[in-house]
Fold this sequence. Notes:
265 residues; Trna Endonuclease, Chain: A, domain 1; 2 domains; 46% helix; globular
Amino acid sequence: MSGRAFQSDVVRIRERLAPRDIAVLDQINSLRLMNGAQIQAVHFPLCDHESQHAAVRATRRVLQRLVRDGLLVRLERRVGGVKGGSAGYIYAASALGQRLLDGDRHRRFREPTATFVTHTLAISQLVVDLTELSRTRKIDLVRLEPEPRCWRTYASTAGREIVRPDLFVAVGAGDFEHHWFIEMDLGTETIARRLAKSAQYEAYYRSGTEQARHDLFPRILWAVPTDRLAAELQSRIQHSRRLTSDIFAVVTHADLVAMICGGEA
């Protein structure tokens, strides 16, 4: 198929997609991976359907069609503990789906590692949780930037540097706005690597680049799986002479959403 014919085919496919189809595809592409239950929670909420069963059926119908048309890829593995229908499947945008969104050519999809899937779905779930809170007007989801949009570049004595958060989020809660760089830690890193990543954020903070662009510097929020690990990392940050401890917070995964919305570490 020629480039011209392929592009016309992309245009034809896009023209027959509903706005919700585009929204589903765009968010999956933005977050890189989502499972069916997450997609349903955001794009097929119960408030828009007569019953939970109707929401499930609508989700399944749309996802099956987007996979059939080659816009989504369904991973071989499923989410542990989730049974039935499309809820337990994991989805990614195909090369065709990505091209439909931005017009560029992309590489073919490759099955990711289990670690990548677990980490990425954890970030997607955080986005889902915040989206659902904003839907109930408990918070205002001001800005949300997944990777790589949330990455930041800055100049150092070593040259051009990049700090790579997992997510940037700004939420309005009451009279305040809270800005965060999120580090989703699944307990697979060493304490030395966590401190090295914290030192990268410190260098970015000291560069003044973020403050010049946005008039403030977001806090860095480490989310870790256990209380023991949270206490250890918080202590190491507080006692480090190299780190400005006030710009860091450490919580467990269970307390992550509350912290983002204005809780205190």
